[in-house]
Specification:
The complex is a heterodimer of chains A (253) and B (450).
Chain A (H helix, E strand, L loop, with lengths): L1 E7 L11 H11 L4 E7 L10 E4 L4 H13 L2 H8 L3 E4 L1 H6 L2 E2 L7 E2 L6 E5 L5 E9 L7 E7 L1 E5 L7 E5 L7 E2 L1 E3 L2 E4 L5 H4 L1 H12 L9 H29 L8
Parallel strand pairs in A: 1-2, 1-3, 3-4, 4-14
Antiparallel strand pairs in A: 5-6, 7-10, 8-9, 8-11, 11-12, 13-14
Helix pairs in contact in A: 1-6
Chain B lengths: L10 H20 L7 H9 L3 H6 L4 E5 L4 H16 L3 E2 L7 H9 L7 E4 L5 H8 L3 E4 L13 H13 L5 E5 L3 H7 L4 E6 L19 E2 L7 E2 L11 E4 L2 E4 L4 E3 L7 H16 L4 H8 L10 E5 L2 E7 L3 H11 L6 E4 L26 E4 L3 H10 L4 E3 L3 H11 L30 E5 L1 H10 L2 E2 L3
Parallel strand pairs in B: 1-3, 1-4, 2-3, 4-5, 5-6, 6-9, 13-17, 14-15, 14-17, 15-16
Antiparallel strand pairs in B: 7-8, 9-10, 10-11, 12-13, 12-18
Helix pairs in contact in B: 1-2, 2-5, 4-9, 4-10, 6-7, 7-8, 9-10
The chains are: A alpha/beta (253), B alpha/beta (450).
The structure holds zinc ion.
Chain lengths: 253, 450
């Protein structure tokens, strides 16, 4: 078989190296002897058919343009009906929802593949390392980087991807959303490079195969380092807060 | 250079200049800084309008863009110095007003100013300094953890330039975001200086449609709305500069790489806009062989390394093109401190695949991120966190001599074929992002060159 991994609108979405997710999926398939090709589906053409789709992050105008094109063409919805997995990060995640917001505009219509709505948050952008415990699959803790100003509210028909241990995510203590094989998350950039188990979950959905493990020594070393760095920083911060407010002081959360 | 205080300046400005110099001297003596930012802060505290006061009566050129600012600033300063005498310039890349104040405070009164300017500060400076020339190089993604909507920056440049009719703009016509900003200027000079990174340029700044680049390689581009590459005044064609009136000049540089040829043609066009002839400017530019340490050849880790700086995907793309013809080992250093940007996701925008088959060592505080990126690029590599140890490991892996054995014998095959190779004297190429680069430069034993 040859697996077609479609990176959706790399000309509009992909600010944070998000195209890397497509590279990770293709390589992890190939390393197991599964033929795979990377299809960069730019926005001027209709979305091609594929076995797995990735959407990345983007600036406001690009995000709105990408959503327009995806709504005009129901290729992504049909792919989801066929059971193709979709991974959408950051702006791509927001686009897959019912509505999303860009600066100085009323809410814009999303593609509607996830029962979520995103508005501009009132506070500062969420920028930094994020650590989140997955809720809906046998995955180890997710590690990544987030950079967004959106607050995402889930509808009743969609589960969060993970519970946030450090960072912001959706804004309510959870990150992302999962509906069938459509996964959205604020962990941007090469989230699959830092979380190869999530990449393999998407690949097993797309192929129907039980995948043999790979030697992920580099990924494991990176994961251990990032997870330890975030937890150490939290511990330091917690400690100094404790010292500042004393035992009975009121800290946040 | 230590210039006398200009007696014609008002007392408050003289006090501010004195404060700038004193704090800088103190900061250098205490070793707490290179003495360019702290003094600027002190001077601006005494006189918030110090920058306007110090540039009053001077000819001012500003250089901005995502990549090439420091080099282009240096080349322009060198080009002008021959004809105009000493210039005031922030040669160390301190490109915010504190750095500008320091550069001006230590310069001769009235000397022309050639200032490198951070992209975000450019609009304010264009307005307040009534700059004679502004050089706009390119705009692309940089430092992902900051707000970096390049379209927004382009719009802010555009607004500032449309409000400053006295300013001549020298603009890279190959970058649509630069053209959008510069087409609001009164007298733009359009230079085809090239653009190797187009990912941030496909969204049309005029209509939010799509910019199409001509498939034939002349760099032409247009959008359906009519926004297109303007008529060119200056074309960089390989090693030749061609002007609209037919004049041609050979471009011979000591600095390596296509991107430095682009920086040089932009600098020469700017000096021409300030009245210095092309031939004279190019003759002086040709002699510059190192800029703020970039491309220096240094002794480090017991061997000789060429040390290069790349800060964002566009810069990395250029440098990988530069080193890829060589056979020598490559050490790649990645940090993610505040000055680098704390998010190294951009590693996935860099075509590290071009290093396949080379001896590669990943180093720096974020060598683990780089190592994963190299794995997926199928670049065999080792990971050595300490930068100097990494350079040494690369050299040893490539047949370097043990300490005390004199010159290395480990020259890779194919080096001689590289026209831009600085010669057989280099054992290892080191490319680092900002703090990885500065760390290695600080730890280098001695410069053997430049
Ligand atoms: Zn247009």
């Amino acid at each position: 078989m040859s697996l077609r991994v479609v990176v959706v609108h790399p000309d509009l979405l992909g600010t944070y190296g998000d195209g890397g997710n497509g590279v990770v999926l293709v390589q992890r398939a190939r390393w197991r002897g599964i033929g795979a090709e990377l299809v960069e589906a730019t926005s001027e053409s209709p979305l091609p058919t594929g076995d797995l789709y990735c959407l990345g992050g983007g600036e406001d105008a690009a995000q709105a343009a990408s959503a327009d094109r995806l709504r005009a063409d129901d290729a992504l919805a049909r792919a989801v009906e066929r059971g193709s997995p979709v991974l959408a990060v950051c702006a791509g995640y927001q686009i897959l929802g019912r509505t999303f917001a860009v600066a100085h505009s009323r809410p814009l219509a999303g593609v509607g593949l996830l029962d979520v709505s995103t508005s501009k948050g009132a506070g500062r952008r969420a920028v930094g390392e994020i650590l989140a415990e997955p809720l809906c699959a046998q995955l180890p803790v997710l590690t990544g980087f987030e950079n967004h100003g959106g607050v995402t509210v889930r509808g009743s028909s969609v589960a969060p991807l993970a519970r946030v241990e450090a960072g912001v995510g959706n804004g309510d203590g959870t990150d992302g959303a999962v509906s069938g094989r459509v996964v959205g998350t604020y962990l941007h950039g090469p989230v699959l490079a830092r979380n190869p188990a999530l990449a393999d979950l998407m690949l097993s959905w797309a192929t129907g195969l039980t995948l043999e493990p790979l030697d992920d020594a580099e990924e494991t070393a990176l994961r251990d380092e990032r997870i330890a760095a975030v937890r150490a920083r939290r511990a330091r911060r917690g400690l100094s807060r404790l010292e500042r407010y004393g035992r009975y002081g009121r800290g946040r959360s | 250079m230590r210039a006398e205080l200009d007696r014609s300046l008002p007392a408050r400005v003289r006090a501010a200049v004195a404060a700038t110099r004193a704090v800088n001297a103190l900061s250098r003596r205490l070793g707490t800084g290179s003495g360019t930012v702290a003094g600027g802060h002190a001077g601006l505290a005494v006189d918030p309008k110090l920058l306007e006061h110090l540039t009053a009566g001077r000819r001012v050129a500003l250089v901005s863009g995502t990549n090439g600012k420091t080099t282009t600033t240096r080349l322009l300063a060198v080009a002008l110095e021959g004809a105009l005498g000493p210039v005031a310039t922030n040669a160390t890349g301190s490109n915010m007003p504190t750095g500008h104040v320091t550069a001006l405070a230590v310069s001769l009164p009235g000397a022309p100013a050639v200032l490198e300017v951070d992209e975000g500060y450019l609009p304010g400076l264009v307005r307040t300094l009534a700059a004679e020339v502004v050089v706009l190089l390119n705009l692309s993604r940089d430092q992902l953890d900051r707000t970096n909507e390049v379209r927004m920056v382009s719009n802010r440049w555009r607004t500032a330039l449309s409000g400053s009719p006295v300013t001549a703009v020298v603009a890279n016509a190959d970058d649509p975001l630069v053209v959008w900003a510069a087409s609001a200027a009164a007298k733009p000079t359009w230079v085809a200086a090239g653009l190797s990174w187009r990912k941030d340029a496909v969204g049309c700044p005029a209509c939010a449609g799509r910019v199409e680049f001509a498939s034939a390689g002349d760099g032409g581009w247009s959008c359906a709305c009519g926004f297109a590459r303007p008529r060119l005044d200056v074309v960089l064609d390989g090693d030749e500069i061609v002007l609209a009136d037919g004049r041609r000049y050979r471009l011979a540089l000591a600095l390596p790489g296509r991107f430095n040829r682009a920086n040089a043609v932009m600098a020469a066009a700017a000096s021409s806009a300030m009245g210095v002839g092309w031939e004279e400017a190019l003759r002086r530019i040709a002699e510059v062989d190192e800029v703020a340490g970039r491309f220096s050849i240094v002794e480090v880790g017991g061997c000789t390394a060429r040390v290069m700086l790349a800060k964002n995907p566009a810069g990395w793309r250029e440098l990988l093109d530069l080193v890829s013809p060589g056979g020598r080992p490559v050490v790649v250093g990645i940090n993610a401190r505040v000055a680098d940007g704390k998010d190294p996701s951009w590693l996935w925008d860099v075509p590290f695949e071009r290093l396949r088959g080379r001896c590669v060592i990943a180093t720096g505080e974020r060598c683990r991120d780089l190592s994963v990126r190299l794995r997926y690029a199928e670049v065999a590599h080792r990971t050595v966190r300490d930068e100097v140890a990494a350079v040494r490991a690369a050299w040893m892996a490539h047949g370097g001599a043990a300490p005390g054995d004199g010159r290395a014998s480990g020259e890779g095959a194919g080096d001689g074929a590289d026209a831009e190779d600085p010669g057989g004297a280099v054992d290892v190429d080191f490319i680092g992002n900002y703090t990885a680069f500065t760390d290695v430069m600080a730890r280098a034993a001695a410069r053997t060159h430049a």
